[in-house]
Amino acid sequence: MTISPETRDRLTASIAQLVRTGRQVSTRAAAQLYGELPSFGWALLLPLERDGAQRCSSLAAHAGIDVSVASRQVAALERDGHVERRPDPDDGRASLLSITERGSLALAATRALRADWALGALSAWDETDARLLSDLLDRLVADLEPFAGHRPAAGTAVPAPR
């Protein structure tokens, strides 16, 4: 099943606008949405809370970032007391990271801030529309993930906008 060029163009334009708006909201509302956590803290603490102790490389994969970036961010979370490091019992050269009680409390506070923000931003939405959008966004993310980081081959022409 294919979609029309008009629908494709509208959809890609809407996604681009959503990303831009998300960046603007994130920048302006970081303190409101993340509380005491740095903005990257959410993406790194959630997998620790959900899946338990893991290596930095696993956290990097969950967050979709390079291990070197995750390592610097984890170090900041560790300094702030949100994560703790212990030797990996299966490989003494590696470390396992765990969320601390302080990290769990920060996530809970962040969840509350996000819930308040979402309730205000989506106050005109009804439950059916909100669930439908959530389901469609989950589907979109799943369909986009295989293409994350995918670049057109060198020399591939990018069609001009119509």
UniProtKB/TrEMBL annotation:
The keyword DNA-binding applies. Pfam families: MarR. Gene3D superfamilies: Winged helix-like DNA-binding domain superfamily/Winged helix DNA-binding domain (1.10.10.10). The keyword Transcription regulation applies. Residues 8-142 form the HTH marR-type domain. InterPro entries: HTH-type_Bedaq_tolerance, HTH_MarR-typ, Tscrpt_reg_MarR-type_CS, WH-like_DNA-bd_sf, WH_DNA-bd_sf. GO terms for molecular function: DNA binding; DNA-binding transcription factor activity. Keywords: DNA-binding, Transcription, Transcription regulation. PANTHER family: CONSERVED PROTEIN (PTHR39515), HTH-TYPE TRANSCRIPTIONAL REGULATOR RV0880 (PTHR39515:SF2). This is DNA-binding transcriptional regulator, MarR family. It comes from Blastococcus tunisiensis. The lineage of its organism: Bacteria, Bacillati, Actinomycetota, Actinomycetes, Geodermatophilales.
